[in-house]
Amino acid sequence: MGSARFSRCRTVEALVVVFSVLGMVSLCCGTRLESGSRQKLEVQKHLRRLNKPAVKTIESPDGDLIDCVHMSHQPAFDHPFLKDHKIQMRPSFHPEGLFDENKVAEKASEKPKPINQLWHVNGKCPEGTIPIRRTKHEDVLRASSVKRYGRKKHRSTPIPPRSAEPDLINQSGHQHAIAYVEGDKYYGAKATMNVWEPSIQQPNEFSLSQLWILGGSFGEDLNSIEAGWQVSPDLYGDNNTRLFTYWTSDAYQATGCYNLLCSGFIQINSDIAMGASISPVSAYRNSQYDISILVWKDPKEGHWWMQFGNGYVMGYWPSFLFSYLADSASMIEWGGEVVNSEPNGEHTSTQMGSGHFPDEGFGKASYFRNIQVVDGSNNLKPPKGIGTFTEQPDCYDVQTGSNGDWGHFFYYGGPGRNANCQ
């Protein structure tokens, strides 16, 4: 019976070839065949769009391929509005009053350690090129569709209670532990966050720590610029901690993406690759490693710039990408986010931050320190009126504080599922 069905299927497939030449509609096995090859073509086309010709390729110890692509050939310039764009090689203005990272901590045990990207072990990109993590066939196939590859799910921004109706809060299975400010015009934000490798229960879940620069309401037109570190098996195919950025101008619906996976962000830095692994990471009761991220609006050109660490100016999001953020941000958020897909009907055990609660403190819990905002005069200032928000404090929590060394800081995170978090 099985072999008869198989041969009948083969016959239909043969007929399909004839019928398709005649422009007739194919049925049965042929449809499956056709949609499979159509997907293959779609994936190949997408990979050609993303993976630009490289001047040099560096293989990272974690298996990543880092392509050194000429700066003017990067994915940003696929955007119709950027066809004749002249790359701005440096911001017109830097925010004033950058926190002196060298006086951060008096105690040697609390001094930040240097941090790197794994691929640097095997080389650097030449000047005039930018490093781009090569997208592989299997990366795209893990996405729900070619179109959705490199995009976040709708509604993955934390919505503090007074900003929206409560029923929106748990809508998407995303959970947060954040500090935030609102009620003013913000022109940027800065933070230093320590880097961990949280464990992820399901491949379709992720754990990240980032800052959000937000404009507009939490409706369909939300503008967001995001940067930090993440562990996302679905996106990268492994459990490594990676530097990332994200942007959207319509609440994650059709615009924006992670890193350089669509046209938008213009990178000018040849040292740091978006989406590449960060190494080393912090260990419980051991050495702590942190990264600094600054995002600010250039008062002259209006573009949103990003700086990684003390000296790496990464590049910019052109102002035309946004509606609300073309002017200023109305809210800044810092903190952690995980996806809770409720495997087996229980809360996920995906960790946020270090996987430990804030009250465990330095060396054990994950932190953000020296959190600052950029004001209308392009000055970095301590944030005023910090609020905190978490959907389920028994799963992931947040605690703020301030002192002379760390300025405004907070510890955050947690283990997810535990005796009090089911």
From TrEMBL:
Residues 168-422 form the Neprosin PEP catalytic domain. Coiled coil: none annotated. Pfam families: Neprosin, Neprosin_AP. It comes from the Eukaryota. InterPro entries: Glutamic_endopeptidase (IPR053168), Neprosin (IPR004314), Neprosin_propep (IPR025521). Residues 148-168 are annotated as: Disordered. This is Neprosin PEP catalytic domain-containing protein.
